[in-house]
Design brief:
This protein is an alpha/beta fold. It has helices at 83-89, 100-116, 135-145, 164-176, 190-196, 234-250, 253-268, 281-299, 319-326, 330-347, 353-365, 378-391, 416-431; strands at residues 2-5, 13-15, 18-20, 27-31, 43-51, 58-66, 69-72, 94-99, 121-126, 158-162, 183-187, 201-204, 213-216, 221-224, 399-404, 407-411. Helix content is 39%, strand content 18%. The protein starts with a strand and ends in a 19-residue tail after the last helix. Bound molecules: nicotinamide-adenine-dinucleotide. Nicotinamide-adenine-dinucleotide is lined by residues 99, 101-102, 105, 128-130, 133, 162-166, 168, 188-189, 191-192, 195-196, 199, 201, 210-211, 228, 231-232, 236, 239, 243, 330, 447-448.
Length: 450
Amino acid sequence: MSIVQAKPHSATEAVNGNTLVSPNVKQFIEFDHPQKYRTSEWYTGHGKIAAQGDGRSFEITASYTLKAEVQVVDGIFEPSNPILADVYSRRGRCVAIVDQTVNELYGEAIRGYFEAHNIPLKLMACRAWESDKTPETVHRLLGFLGKDGCDVSRNEPVLVVGGGVLSDVAGLACALQHRRTPYIMIGTTVVAAIDAGPSPRTCTNGQQFKNSMGVYHPPVLTLVDRKFFATLDTGHVRNGMAEIIKMAVTDDPILFKLLEDYGPQLLENHFATLGGDNELADIADEVIYRALFSYMKHEGTNMFETYQDRPHAYGHTWSPRFEPAVKLMHGHSVTIGMAFGATLAQEMGWLNTEDRDRIINLCRSLGLSVYHPILEDLDLMLEGQKNMRRKRGEGGLWAPLPTGIGSCSYAQEVSSGLLQTAVETHKELCTAFSDEGKGQQMYLSDLGLE
Ligand SMILES: NC(=O)c1ccc[n+]([C@@H]2O[C@H](COP(=O)([O-])OP(=O)(O)OC[C@H]3O[C@@H](n4cnc5c(N)ncnc54)[C@H](O)[C@@H]3O)[C@@H](O)[C@H]2O)c1
């Protein structure tokens, strides 16, 4: 602890090693908390207190440091893989929340892994459909983690294994357990592996607006193993590719080119996990790594969304309003938002026609939707803007829009006139396509697919 005083030194005295201060002295005290008293091995903090010297007021600033690690790995649950055993053998058990479908497919492998390492496993299988993304599910998970369940300690990382719905709700439950309990995320869908999994944005849905309640709480470790993609429905692989396109368009032109060249093959062979086709394994790893790095470069370093220059919000400005309104798959709703955003950017003179068409064609080459008539509901679109402006802090709409392949800027406002013109242009463009821009399997069902 260090003290800086603006007035005479006589104002402080030490009693039993504790520094006492006079209320009438302007001073500044900085705390470096001793390492031996740490609550958790995952988080650190630092604080300052500045007294105004008027005997009535003082100001506190505190910073909180989170370290989040991301690793692309092979065979997470192969007994020879030491990563999880190293973490959990020290704690004498592993408390895990696993997506119900993933438990059916991989539960045996998960149990076998912990048995092989003599680590007791407490596993809760949780159904995690989009319709389960509710405060009730979070509450149920807290029952499992809390005092009446496993009584998880504040320094015990919960293992979460599943898709984006589970990472959102289980991450939120971990954030609420003891106010902040760490978790390790294994994303088993493409969306969860490269986006929702490492994301700090845990949440649940509201009635009309997606992801409207939540907290910022990233996993301390994200493990990405594309082998899980082998058992995904192809529709879910396609859905996840939308989030990769988003980073390619706004941040990484090499990733964009890789998707143009190999995207359809990666979709077909589920990122080189099907049919013994390992030829594209290196490309699959590079696409995953680039998408993750690009996303976390922006999202991970702006963990509490203290700034709104967020390229990864491309395609996510109007879609949180129209996605639940017509029950679209998240990825399709994002590509509709991105394709519309490309047309809007072209209308605004930010993007040339050739790059607009490359963006729309890339989405279409993967069977992702680029148009839905819900865009023509101007009231709903304007309401979406209003919601989004509020969510982004009322400083502006800050809609990320492409300025080329691999770059973007932020539209502070979009007038209703411009919005309507852009929708009309986009409709005209898309009705010329044989499928009118519908793509394949755009709607949610209970199972998440048509
Ligand atoms: N927090 C964020 O930053 C963020 C980012 C992107 C998306 N999201 C959210 O993620 C959700 C979508 O996630 P999703 O696309 O992963 O969907 P999902 O979690 O609904 O998973 C899709 C389906 O696949 C099943 N499944 C999971 N892994 C499987 C596997 N390996 N093999 C076979 N089936 C498997 C699940 O049981 C589910 O039925 C949306 O709610 C979206 O809002 C959040």
